[in-house]
From TrEMBL, chain A:
This is Oligopeptide ABC transporter permease OppB. Keywords: Cell membrane, Membrane, Transmembrane, Transmembrane helix, Transport. It holds the Pfam family BPD_transp_1_N. It is a multi-pass membrane protein. The chain crosses the membrane at residues 12-30, 100-121, 133-158, 170-193, 239-263, 275-300. It comes from Motilimonas cestriensis. The keyword NADP does not apply. Residues 94-293 form the ABC transmembrane type-1 domain. It comes from the Bacteria. SUPFAM superfamilies: MetI-like. It is found in: Cell membrane.
């Protein structure tokens, strides 16, 4: 297992390097630059600004300078938010996205797995139809529709919950964003879970367990859950990275200071260092969580060994 | 135009010291104030910086106006009022002497002196500061500003000198009668030397920042909120009513509207146009529309065929039904534009242009004839791309205008939208035929608009080049006679009407939602709002 983890780590380095290189040059090839604005600057003023941020040097030199700083853990200054470095901004935003994302994730897994299992056990009954049509609705309604509707009902109409803001992550500020974010995941998880549970419940070892006279709940918890959850786990790995690095839609609608907003504004403003920094962050997290999923496989399924 | 209580007359006649009025929250008798005076404002986008010498955008300026106080300030109707300078004088519009306000203090208790301004102006033009607004000092023609920005002269040579703690002398290259009105722009704000030097790039952080405005920086969470609290040291602190101001960077207009309706903010940054009619009906007291000194226009690339032909430009411009755009496509109170300079600009009286007086039918008939003369007709229709930056409103207008062109002239304009930075790049490179554009005045004077079309202006993306126009604009800067200058501007507008390098479409308004219990909301045409002038009424 240690050897496996070590191997994955080594593989991650070239993957990240390719990612950084491609993103670096793609950003530079995009039209405009961080300092192009509607009021065009006199050439000398522009040159002064570019000199300050090292943009006057050849691109290839900028690239190696970037790598040099990156090795030291420095993601550089933000070109847009001039009073902050990318490290500071990410350090401020990541906990926000992670807190909302992790909460939504845990709830989505809990409800998704429970509801999916329930639907599978009551296959083709009204409960199954009810849950699955609910899940279908959850999958097709995008968060940019769901979130404003939640705001309309609970903030403007009933005035129970705030329509936005973060306030250090106080519970009442998290309720609507978390709901807005998790509905889609609950639905997807429930649908995957139902399908795989039905398959497992029809297999020979479950029939044997039933023949032994074990109770249904014992069978589900001790025999069926583990094999049935595997497809959900492979779905969750990449989904987890997406969910904790923030949703642009949810963050914009609720005015949350997370990673999603930084990413979009970074791209629109040609904030080179911000976009690169976040790409590296998301890339590194994706690699990490894919590795974790592989390890989880081995834990859950005894047939898989590394 | 009653509002044209002219700042020109203010600054030109300022040969004698002014001890004019100062503006602050004026709560009318009988109005009961709310117990909690905490104002929350939507602010469009996250600020790029809170360093006055590194900013260029509107969201930044909104916050800076509360934090810092320049030599002068912009009054509720756009007039120039004394602020950190109590008075000023000039005899030749070339050398200005400012007398500092006695008793003005920084938030740490240090006195605000002329030396602070000398330091600030020099810092703003210093190439090392790399201020995106350094050009503003060049435009204000402060002596040596240009050479310093170009790196040929030492920063120390900027002709801004503190004679003593109370006297600041600014010398210009040439007479500029409206110089003082340029000084309420936030790029001319002072900064506290000791803290800038002590904290370097981190001086704008809460805890580090020392400011001289009515408020000081309390907390700052990027992409969530900036909170300012009352500056007890501010010289007019006794008149300030609002204790705490929060700025929320809400980029989505719909989300901002929802926050307003949920009673979480008192004042929005803007409002979604598609909800305007409904909001106006349901919350008539909350919808506030004020004039804004800016013009929305279509720009012709005069270096590209056939837009080098004045007949083609004129034909296209005439065919745009401005009334329909302003009243039906937008409908928030925007006014149709027949001149490049908005009518509400201080000291500007637009001379009626002949074509503006015609009916739309007559205009289209003229346009048809002009276009035919230029060689375009049904068999040989004019075809080009109409460029705009991605936005619902620009798209709506582009669809309307292109169908007017199609219907009236048989012109085939293909809509092309580009993301903001790409669009800017295309415009700067001259990669366009006709492009949507907009311009908001930096200061309340016609030159802030008209100089844009001078041949050497870096923002003249359509490369319009008229020696006669350039000469008029150059003359307007030298003359000391306000009547002569107003005449120059009118003639300049007449040339634009004839040459039609741009087709003005409508004049901007500021439309936002404001709680009816927010008192002191002014009518400022530059949208220069100061929280210290406002108060929350008990409701």
């Amino acid at each position: 297992m240690t050897k496996f983890i070590f191997k994955r780590l080594l593989e991650a380095i070239p993957t990240l390097l390719v990612l950084i290189t491609v993103s670096f040059f793609l950003m530079r090839f995009a039209p405009g630059n961080p300092f192009s604005s509607e009021r065009s600057l006199p050439p000398k003023v522009k040159a002064n600004i570019e000199a300050k941020y090292g943009l006057d040097k050849p691109v290839i030199e900028q690239y190696f300078n970037y790598l040099k700083h990156l090795v030291q853990g420095d993601l550089g200054p933000s070109f847009k938010y001039k009073d902050y470095s990318v490290n500071e901004l990410v350090a401020q935003a990541l906990p926000v996205s992670a807190k909302i994302g992790a909460t939504a994730f845990v709830l989505a897994v809990f409800f998704g797995v429970s509801l999916g299992t329930l639907a599978a056990l009551k296959q083709n009954t009204w409960l199954d139809y009810f849950l699955m049509s609910g899940a279908m609705v959850g999958v097709v309604i995008p968060s940019f529709v769901l979130a404003p509707v939640l705001v309309l009902i609970f903030s403007i109409g009933l005035k129970w919950l705030p329509a936005g803001g973060w306030n250090g992550g106080a519970v009442q500020f998290m309720v609507l964003p978390v709901i807005g974010m998790m509905m889609h995941y609950i639905s997807s998880i429930a649908r995957i879970m139902r399908g795989s549970m039905i398959e497992v419940m029809g297999s020979n070892f479950i029939r044997t367990a039933r023949a032994k006279g074990l109770s249904m709940s014992y069978i589900v918890i001790h025999h069926a859950l583990r094999p049935a959850i595997l497809p959900v786990v492979s779905y969750l790995g990449p989904a987890f990275v997406g969910i904790i690095t923030g949703s642009v839609v949810i963050e914009t609608i609720f005015g949350l200071p997370g990673i999603g907003q930084l990413f979009v504004n970074g791209a629109l403003n040609r904030d080179y260092s911000m976009v690169l920094g976040l790409t590296i962050l998301v890339g590194a997290l994706t690699i990490t969580f894919n590795a974790i999923v592989d390890i989880l496989y081995a834990v859950i399924d005894p047939k898989i060994r590394y | 135009m009653k509002r044209k209580l002219s700042l020109i007359s203010l600054s030109v006649l300022a040969t004698c010291a002014l001890n004019a009025q100062v503006f602050a929250a004026e709560v009318p008798a009988g109005v009961e104030l709310a117990a909690v005076q905490e104002l929350v404002k939507g602010n469009g986008a996250e600020v790029a910086t809170l360093d006055p010498h590194k900013t260029e955008g509107v969201p930044e300026a909104n916050v800076l106006r509360d934090l810092f106080e320049g030599l002068v300030t912009s009054g509720p109707n756009g007039e120039t009022l004394p602020a950190a300078a109590e008075s000023w004088e000039t005899t030749d519009n070339k050398v200005y002497t400012f007398h500092m306000r006695q008793g003005a203090k920084w938030s740490n208790g240090d006195p605000v002196t002329a030396h602070d301004f000398e330091y600030a102006f020099k810092r703003a033009v210093n190439p090392e500061t790399a201020s995106p607004y350094a050009w503003y000092f060049e435009k204000a023609t402060i002596k040596n500003a240009k050479a310093i920005i170009n790196g040929t002269t030492a920063t120390e040579q900027l002709a801004v000198t503190a004679k003593d703690d109370n006297t600041l002398v600014i010398e210009l290259d040439k007479p500029l009668p409206y110089f003082v009105s340029m000084l309420y722009h936030t790029s001319t704000n002072p900064v506290h030397k000791a803290s800038v030097e002590k904290f370097g790039d981190k001086w704008t952080r809460p805890g580090n920042m020392v400011s001289n405005g009515a408020y000081k920086l309390d907390t700052w969470t990027v992409n969530e909120r900036i909170v300012l609290s009352r500056n007890e040291q501010y010289w007019d602190n006794a008149s300030t009513v609002i204790n705490k101001v929060s700025y929320l960077p809400l980029q989505s207009q719909n989300a901002e509207m929802n926050r307003f309706l949920a009673d979480e903010i008192h004042m929005t940054y803007e409002m979604p146009i598609e909800h305007f009619k409904r909001l106006k009906k349901e919350y008539p007291e909350s919808v506030k529309v004020t004039g804004y000194v800016g013009t929305y226009y279509y720009q012709f690339n005069t270096k590209q065929k056939p837009f080098d032909d004045v007949r083609v430009r004129t034909a296209l411009s005439y065919t745009i039904n401005r009334e329909a755009i302003a009243n039906f496509v937008l409908g928030q109170g925007q006014t149709p534009a027949y001149s490049f300079t908005p009518e509400i600009v201080d000291g500007f009286e637009p001379a009626p242009q002949e074509w503006a007086g015609l009916s739309q039918k007559e205009r289209v008939a003229k346009a048809k004839a002009l276009l035919a003369e230029a060689g375009y007709n049904k068999d040989n229709p004019l075809k080009f791309d109409l460029l705009y930056n991605t936005s619902e409103n620009h798209k709506k207008i582009a669809i309307a205008v292109s169908s007017m062109w199609k219907k009236g002239l048989g012109v085939e304009a293909k809509l092309e939208n580009q993301e903001w930075k790409t669009y800017l790049d295309s415009k700067k490179q001259g990669n366009f035929s006709v492009a949507r554009a907009g311009w908001i005045a930096d200061y309340n004077e016609a030159s802030s608009m008209l100089s844009l079309l001078e041949s050497d202006n870096g923002n003249n993306d359509g490369k319009y080049n008229s020696p006669a126009y350039d000469k008029l604009m150059a003359d307007s800067r030298i003359t000391t006679d306000p009547a002569k200058r107003a005449n120059d501007y009118q003639q300049a507008e007449a040339i634009l009407s004839k040459d039609m390098p741009v087709a003005p479409i409508y004049q901007y308004v500021t439309a936002r939602l404001v709680k009816p219990y927010l008192g002191g909301y002014p009518n400022n045409p530059l949208d220069n709002l100061y929280s210290k002038d406002m108060y929350l009424i008990k409701h």
